[in-house]
Amino acid sequence: MNRRLQVFYEKLGPFYSVFIIAILSGLIALIGYHHVQPRSYDFKVNHVSDVTILAPSTMEDSYQTQLNRQRAREAIADIYVFQEDLLEIERDRLDQFFSYVREWKNRTYTQSQLVELIKDKGPDQSIDLEQIKQYLPEASQSLSFDELSPSLQSVLAQLVFLDPPADLQALIDQLRQDNLRLLLLLDAQDLDLLQDELLQVIKDTMSQELSASQLGQELLNIRTQMAAGSLPLELQQLALNILSYSIKPTLIYSESETKRLKDEAEANVQTSYILQGQVIIQAGHVIKPTNLRQLELYGYLNRQKNSMKIWVFLGLILIHGLLLVRLFYVGFDRSDLDQKSKNLTAYAIILAGALLSIELSQWLQIHHFLYANLLVPMAVFPLLLYTKTNLKHSLLFVLVVHIFAIFVLTNNESQTLVIYVSLFYLLSSLLTVIYILWQGEIKRSFRRQRFFLYTLLGQLFLAIPIMSALSIPVNSKQVLWILASTVLSNLFGFLIWVLLEPYYDQLLSSRSPMTLNQLANLNHPLLKRLIEKAPGTYHHSMMVANLAANAVETIGGDSLLTRVAAYYHDVGKTIHPLFFVENLSGGIESPHQMLTPQESSQVIIDHVTEGVRLLQEEGLPQSIIDICQQHHGTTSTQYFYYQAKETDPTVEEADFRYPGPIPQTKEAAITMIADSMEAASRTLKHYDQTSIENLLDQIIQSKLKDGQFADCQLTADELLKVRQSIIKGIASMYHTRIEYPH
């Protein structure tokens, strides 16, 4: 972790994770809130709109669908069916009616029959028998209807039709009393003539289609025809009265057929939709009720109706925050605090960067930068996160970033594009995950070009079927834009990796190449101080750096870190440079002669603690500080220990040991070996292969016996490679030179 970030982390301690989670959650809320906040408009009918609103998604317009179905039903006229049997029914009724008239007309009436009839039905018709006794026939007489007196005929005409057959009741009710009397008074010839005339008219009229609306006009036509006919005038009115009842519409309304056709028409009506991208309301146009109804469907007129989205969004942020607490917060248990805090920082940086990139692309998209959403290099983000964490965190990122991306993308005009972009993001990220699983491990030196070529080909391969599934024509100009945006997305991803990855690495790693190269600059204040105050130590540090870095490289370790750490490993000697033999010029007496062995030992040991202090004050990475602190481990200053033991055999060796800790990494252990070997090699009288090997073996064996390599995980095979590299390095440092003639 970057030194400044490390200092900040150490100040917050166990609350660092909570702080990062809170900041990340706040940033997510800030990015997404304006995309999910309920928006409402104060639109009024017959007012001019000042904004244009497009349908954000395709939605069924149930009101319009119902209206169209109602219109389809109303467009179907009522169905009338021609009833052929009506003609026969009416002809039969008319025949029955005339038969009934003839039956009464052809009877003979006696006095007793008439008296009985009048007594039976007369009171109901207010007929007084006493008043008509004078008109009754003699007791011995039997008279036909025609032979009866006119008064008695009228009474009889009134009584005989009081209780007709049920089928004739309605017809008789239509006729006046004088019509009935006239029927009874007609002679047989006129009665036949009237019947034939009526039957013919009924046949002519009801043998064709006749609707209820045409009935009145048809009766008028019949009246006109009769007036011009041969029927006597007195019979014309009687005939019209009978016909006004007998002639009925032959087209009868069919409720079942009408319902069937209306149902079919309704079923054939297509469901009405408001299509995504359709203009609901146009700026500068007058607002109509239909516009308001469609706006209401999408919740533009009711903030509360559209508020569920924001609660879902905030709920997801809360769940995400709690999940991060569960994964990364370790409380006051420091055993895993450093690594989890580093992982959380990397996760927060990558997630924030991805969401900010999506937000920027969305802003460009809204401002008519076509397909800007596709320019987000989503494939590179999981890879950047994986290099600092693990696959589990990369998969969590893939899930989370796509959930929140949906909220950012929702106010695009094209829902099809939203779906495509979402799938594009998801599949691009999954391609990266597959690549990670395929590679097994991503090293610092992995081939970037191969990765981006792989993702580009994968995205192009997946783009065509996705567009086909979303009904995007593959031969359209839109496809060319999408494919071009995909290529640019990978180009941007490559540029992000090349340009920004070093800074990302520098922020999260104490051994990033950029940081180490900056620290290797000899103009660094500590190195300048080392050159000025302890030039011998500076030269020693350079030699150690070469030996250690080359040895580390042979075992695949971080040689750059080792080299830079070796530059600074003895910077503590600048506090008391003359107490170290490499800084003494010829003829200068060693200051140790004025100190006791214990004091001298403490001065020597202090160069480590003072070096750590100086490095911390200058803000150097912890990885370099660790190597400086561990390069002597817990070894002892044996020269001063034995010197003290000569005067006081009771002294403890522990008082002459460095505080440690022993080397925790291979780089620190190799720096320890190189440091000891470079210093000890100066005491050799002969720099031949055997003497160098023997000296190095003695140093390595002494460190092993002292347990200095117990925690660094340096294997025997690696130690052998380190030995060979250092021997080669020392031999090259002290090679024989040619003596030139004077």
TrEMBL record:
UniProt keyword Transmembrane helix, yes or no: yes
Transmembrane segments: 12-33, 310-332, 344-364, 370-387, 394-411, 417-439, 451-472, 478-500
Gene3D superfamilies in the cross-refs: Hypothetical protein af1432
Record keywords: Membrane, Transmembrane, Transmembrane helix
Domain (HD): residue spans on this chain: 537-680
Domain of life: Bacteria
Pfam families: 7TMR-HDED, HD
Name this protein carries in UniProt: HD domain-containing protein
